[in-house]
Amino acid sequence: MATITETGPITTHRHGDVLVVTSNNPPVNALGAAVRQGLVAAIEEAEGDEAIKAVVIRCEGQTFFAGADITEFGKPPVMPWLPTVVDTIENCTKPVVAAIHGTALGGGLEVALASHYRVAVPDAKFGVPEVKLGLLPGAGGTQRLPRVAGVEQALQMTTSGAMIGAKQAHDMGLVDRIVEGELQQHAVAFAEEVRDIRPLPKSSERQDKVEAADPGVFAEFRKANARKFRGFEAPEKNIQAVEAAVAKPYAEGVIDERRLFMELMTGAQARAQQYFFFAERKAAKIENIPEDTQPRSVKKVGVIGAGTMGGGISMNFLSAGIPVTIVEMTQEALDRGTGVMRKNYEATASKGRMTSEQVEKAMGILSPTLDFDALKDCDLIIEAVFEQMEIKKEIFGRLDKTVKKGAILASNTSYLNIDEIAASTSRPEDVVGLHFFSPANVMKLLEIVRGAKTAPDVLVTAMGLAKKIKKVAVVAGVCHGFIGNRMLMPRQVEATKLLLEGATPEQIDRVHVEFGMPMGPFQMADLAGVDIGWHRDPNRIENIRDALCAIDRWGQKKGAGFYDYDERRRPTPSPVVQQIIEDFAKKQGVERREISDQEIVERTLYTMVNEGAKILEEGMAQRASDIDVVWVYGYGWPVYRGGPMFWADTEGLDTIVEGLKRQEERMGSDFSFSKLLLDKAERGEKFTR
Ligand code: 3H9
């Protein structure tokens, strides 16, 4: 089995009359130029040698090809490009078998689809995540996938970018054989089995599945997913490409695919989404800590408080197989909390996303207790109680006396000063903020709040755990509201003032929704509860919010808030609210006028950018892209706009500054410019590029 060819990351060796082609291009075997060149050379080698009867393509390391090399996008193309590579593979006159482990993604799956056969290990995964990069599979994937897996599956996979498992892939015909044990050995054996079968099965020539497609499937699919795809360009173009696979012969379909791919690739959304791919990965890198910092071991987690947050937080760990001890003050609260957790798990199971054994397994490693001392041997304790400094300090003081040395003491506070909390212990280096977003078992974002004394290994542990519980974590500094909630504040202040000046909740919310946010500030207030943080005195009415709370308009839960709600929680504008707003404006002597949508953008979105710049300037975020990660994952900022800082760069910082200057007088003392923003605008610089 001597190595006979080595072209960069691609090597070949012979196994009898099978040529085994191996890619070794860590970390994910991306299909960069050298890999593409090597693959073509390997196929040429097979073609040029009569003794070779079949080919196996496999990868070393953690995964089969995870797609095109994204770092090459936007750079001058290096030949051969991927479409040529996959055609070369499919046109090989000897059978080619793709041997798949890890994740066959994007261009990787396209290589597999161009191979004549596919074998995979049971835990292999398959997907075309290009849509998440604002693209579509551009190397024949949109044409071969429906031919092999069926049109509906192809629509699902291309527009969601979600991965499927080996069994499902096998069931839909994407995988020919699932093999247990040594993959290469099985793949070679498979190649020997099929070496003499002719004609070779070529995905591009199959017509059965595309011909069987229901012609109404596209219209139905568009309708069913209209909400999900709102604002995004790539899903629609993926659908059009799959439509071409049904309507046209392969040779014409790939031309459509190429055109649609280029339209997306040169567009602003793809740029934003590709930027975000790297932003998300960069967020995991913690600055200013020794590189060799090792994490602490976390085998058991304690959670204080079984309310909505505590329960949601616990579920993350339980789902990852980490035992949780949850502490409450009363049996009733404990039972209620654990009951909600079970109900949530059961709801997931009823949707088929979990088995009942998994539910029992998760609930089986939960230890509910009223005994605070039960936390003493936990490795990480997360406090999730009322947002009151005195209570938090008391709890941390108690923890300090109770729990073992080396345990990490975390607070789920969303605003409070972690350093002050840490000062109530004798071990501030072990204290960190872990700010989960509600619902904590669902939302992907985690802000890791780094206190002045937080130890590097505590940060590294938190970051590692975040990945384990499938969160995207961002490191934030200690400031009021950290990154996300801090930026929400200027938006809320200006949105509320705009109401008095003449805008309506509907107008402001519409501007935000049209921008791509899932909801506007007032829809969000109604959903979260207008009463959050309210002083609870109905006679003390100092602002619009107080007035709404005083008449029981606490938001959706009461059927009334900034909007009126029907029994299906559908909102309509409220004349009562409008009257309250007008009365307040009169009382405060605010002159009402027509407010333009542009003014709303400038006062609510540009101000967020300004606050983001302050956060950067103060070192409260490690980098601008981290702010974007917070907003995309924590608040539903449309990823096709990259995040507030990337968006500001796209608009031009001079445009942002001009807009803010236009509004400066109206915003009054609530607003002050970030020096960083002004400086960058002046110098023609950007935050993220
Ligand atoms: C495509 O294929 C287009 C074609 O259809 C048509 C072309 C004509 N390229 O995520 P991780 C880096 S589009 C370059 O932390 P994990 C990543 O930045 C592509 N680099 O690991 C990170 O670098 P660093 C379609 C890539 O184990 C390191 O690898 N494919 C690529 O959690 C580790 O990544 C995709 O979109 C890449 N394609 O997850 C798949 N992928 O260490 C994208 C990763 O410096 N990749 N890197 O920060 C993934 O989904 C995940 O990386 C994967 C592994 C699931 C594979």
From TrEMBL:
PROSITE patterns associated with the record: ENOYL_COA_HYDRATASE
Q: Where is the 3-hydroxyacyl-CoA dehydrogenase NAD binding domain?
A: 300-476
Biological pathway? Lipid metabolism; fatty acid beta-oxidation
Q: Which Pfam families match?
A: 3HCDH (PF00725), 3HCDH_N (PF02737), ECH_1 (PF00378)
Superkingdom of the organism of origin: Bacteria
- Provide the protein name: 3-hydroxyacyl-CoA dehydrogenase NAD-binding domain-containing protein
Which species is listed as the source?
Sphingomonas alba
Main localisation: other
Among CDD domains, the record links this protein to: crotonase-like
Q: What UniProt keywords are attached to this protein's entry? A: Fatty acid metabolism, Isomerase, Lipid degradation, Lipid metabolism, Lyase, Multifunctional enzyme, NAD, Oxidoreductase, Peroxisome
| Annotated InterPro entries | 3-OHacyl-CoA_DH_NAD-bd (IPR006176), 3HC_DH_C (IPR006108), 6-PGluconate_DH-like_C_sf (IPR008927), ClpP/crotonase-like_dom_sf (IPR029045), Enoyl-CoA_hyd/isom_CS (IPR018376), Enoyl-CoA_hydra/iso (IPR001753), NAD(P)-bd_dom_sf (IPR036291)
Family annotation (PANTHER family): 3-HYDROXYACYL-COA DEHYROGENASE (PTHR23309), PEROXISOMAL BIFUNCTIONAL ENZYME (PTHR23309:SF49)
Q: Which Gene3D superfamilies match?
A: 1.10.1040.50, 2-enoyl-CoA Hydratase, Chain A, domain 1, NAD(P)-binding Rossmann-like Domain
UniProt catalytic activity? a (3S)-3-hydroxyacyl-CoA + NAD(+) = a 3-oxoacyl-CoA + NADH + H(+)
SUPFAM superfamilies per record: 6-phosphogluconate dehydrogenase C-terminal domain-like, ClpP/crotonase, NAD(P)-binding Rossmann-fold domains
> Which family does the record assign?
Belongs to the enoyl-CoA hydratase/isomerase family.
Q: How does it assemble?
A: Monomer.
Q: Enumerate the spans annotated as 3-hydroxyacyl-CoA dehydrogenase C-terminal domain.
A: 481-565, 600-682
